[in-house]
Design a protein that fits this description.
heterodimer; A: 168 residues; alpha/beta; Rossmann fold; 6-stranded parallel sheet; 6 strands; 51% helix; globular; B: 195 residues; two-stranded antiparallel ribbon; 9 helices
């Protein structure tokens, strides 16, 4: 997948050294790239909220991090973002694969898919959605700059327009 | 059951250059009152996240010892963190759980540990093999001496009473972060400025 290669190259170029991920089909290739790399600390929390705590702790120790999750995970992670990352001004990049949108076949995915952007907006987390491969590099670089220069979590949403979504 | 503030003083008294992460509420106040230090990171929110923060920190700082102190109510909110700590088994992480069997700060409602749940047993089931419960200050102090420099991960449950600390931990989260990272040397700007 071209998008996953580009995203991973951007993570490396921006000094990301810790990756926490809760598995998701769309993210499989990106997670594998991170695991195969060897240089990054790739960690699997049991729940996305735990992942927020882990990347925040890693950052305090000098290891900037990214959290990879499906949009359902944002619901699990919301309180840790609101009451840890934001008030303590701890930056990290969220890469959120989107379900519940174009092509969705599973009814239960739609609710959190629709709540994704309003939740990020409500939390005050800037978010960006590259829809074409040629925008991926600029968006991920820019999101990393915004996060790590201004000390806040920032989200990049991986739309089915970019990733092809999950197929039935 | 041990005097909570005596346990906090015993813990802080045993520290040297460890990085300390506390949970929110009374635990943060206890550790602050027992002896504030720049290498203390006090939580003020995100109930349950202290062990996860400590795990991330321990992974990022393998040459340093990380000590996490949290209450049992918070740990119960994020039991998955014990599974993750067991899975990655950071040798430089010591977790301490103040267990007063109550959500004390919200009115003393009982937690599951008042009804038979054993967090040390849960931790051992997660692979934190030496997890223990201490009922007296002597026992807790001995466990601390055994574990603070020994390869972990460790989990020490301390059965404590409900004696409150005098005073409150610092209220400004950003200040806690910048002081901690400044002392640790992980934030360049803090080191470049005069203080």
């Amino acid at each position: 997948m071209a998008w996953a290669d580009t995203v991973f190259a951007c993570l490396k170029a921006n000094g990301i050294r810790t990756i926490a991920h809760v598995p998701d089909t769309i993210l499989t290739g990106l997670i594998r790239l991170a695991q195969d790399e060897g240089d990054m600390d790739v960690l699997g929390p049991t729940r996305e909220e735990e992942g927020v705590g882990m990347v925040c702790g890693a950052y305090l120790g000098g290891s900037p991090g990214a959290l990879l999750m499906q949009n359902s995970g944002l619901g699990n992670a919301a309180n840790a973002i609101a009451s840890l990352a934001i008030p303590y001004q701890i930056p990290f990049l969220m890469l959120i694969s989107q379900r519940g949108e174009l092509g969705e076949f599973n009814t239960v995915q739609v609710g959190m898919g629709q709540a994704l952007r309003p939740t990020l907006d409500g939390l005050g987390v800037p978010h960006f959605t590259p829809e074409r491969q040629e925008d991926v590099e600029r968006v991920v670089h820019g999101a990393c700059a915004l996060a790590f220069s201004t000390d806040r979590p920032v989200a990049v949403i991986l739309s089915p327009l970019l990733t092809g979504g999950k197929q039935l | 059951m041990m005097h909570r503030q005596e346990a906090a003083r015993a813990l802080v008294g045993a520290l040297t250059d460890q990085l300390v992460v506390t949970g929110l509420g009374n635990v943060a106040n206890d550790i602050f009152a027992a002896g504030d230090r720049a290498l203390n990171f006090y939580s003020r929110g995100a109930m349950g996240m202290a062990m996860s923060i400590a795990l991330g920190l321990a992974r990022a700082r393998p040459q340093d010892r990380v000590v996490c102190v949290d209450g049992e109510g918070s740990v119960l909110m994020n039991l998955g963190s014990l599974a993750t700590i067991g899975r990655y088994a950071p040798p430089n992480l010591t977790c301490i759980v103040w267990d007063n069997e109550a959500y004390q700060i919200t009115g003393g409602q009982t937690t599951p540990t008042a009804h038979g749940v054993d967090l040390a047993h849960v931790a051992r089931g997660c692979g934190i093999t030496g997890a223990s419960v201490s009922y007296s200050l002597e026992e807790f102090s001995a466990r601390l001496r055994e574990t603070l420099d020994a390869p972990g991960p460790h989990l020490l449950v301390a059965k404590v009473d409900r004696t409150l600390a005098e005073g409150w931990s610092p209220r400004r989260p950003a200040l806690i972060k910048y002081r901690f990272m400044g002392r640790l040397g992980t934030l360049e700007d803090v080191g470049r400025m005069a203080w």
